[in-house]
Amino acid sequence: MRHSRIPNRLARYALISALTFVIAPLAVAQGGIANEFDQTLAQKTITFDAVNPYTNSPGAVTITVSGGVFHVQRIGSGRKAGWTFVTGKQEGSFKFVPYDSTQPTYEGTFKFGLSGDIPFDRHSDVLPLNFNITATGSDGSVVAFVQEEFANVNEVGADVSFGRLSRPNVMEKE
């Protein structure tokens, strides 16, 4: 009688092992990424008021975004369920024209890769970013700026807006 139980036990172990290898991958496939998509940022030019952080001179910044793409993953389960992960790249040009014509005008270009996440509790598809710009002044000087950006990326499209202009390593909270 003892010998007849061993084949039954082996059959049960074989069945459990087979089910484990069939069911486990299905369970993993249902978790993780809930939605994944790409969005291309349309070329656009935005002009807004800003202050040169080196001279405190007010002026107008014009940024032309000439290219950009975002890859978005919405997480459906796990430790970061509800979060959104965004990667991508952007490029364009920058110009600061002070309202005081005795101050130098600065021009430069930018090109950068981006990566960030949006926590589920933010209830928004806006990713705050900062990017660096090296600009040359009409007086020959070279300065570095940090431009604050807000990328709104969702299944419908992508758009950006810009915030404060600052110096590197001087991004203070207001």
What does this structure look like?
With about 170 residues, this protein is of the alpha+beta class. The protein has two domains: about 30 residues; about 130 residues. Helices cover about 15% and strands about 55% of the residues. The chain has one helix and eight strands; from the N terminus they run H-E-E-E-E-E-E-E-E. Strands 1, 2, 3, 4, 5, 6, 7 and 8 form an eight-stranded antiparallel β-sheet that branches. A hairpin with a 4-residue loop joins strand 7 and strand 8. It is elongated, with a radius of gyration of 26 Å. The termini are far apart. About 10% of the residues have low confidence.
Give the oligomeric state. Answer: single chain
What is the strand content? Answer: over 45%
Name the helicity range.
10-25%
Overall shape: it is: elongated
Number of helices: 1
Mean pLDDT: 83
**Main sheet overview:** 8 strands, antiparallel
Cα Rg: 26 Å
Short account of what is shown:
The chain has 174 residues and is an alpha+beta fold. 17% of the residues lie in helices and 55% in strands. Strands 1, 2, 3, 4, 5, 6, 7 and 8 form an eight-stranded antiparallel beta sheet that branches.
What labels describe this entry?
alpha+beta, 2 domains, 8-stranded antiparallel sheet, 17% helix
What order do the helices and strands come in, and which of them pair?
Elements: H1 2-30, E1 33-40, E2 44-51, E3 58-75, E4 84-98, E5 106-118, E6 126-137, E7 142-153, E8 158-166
Antiparallel strand pairs: 1-3, 2-3, 3-4, 4-5, 5-6, 6-7, 7-8
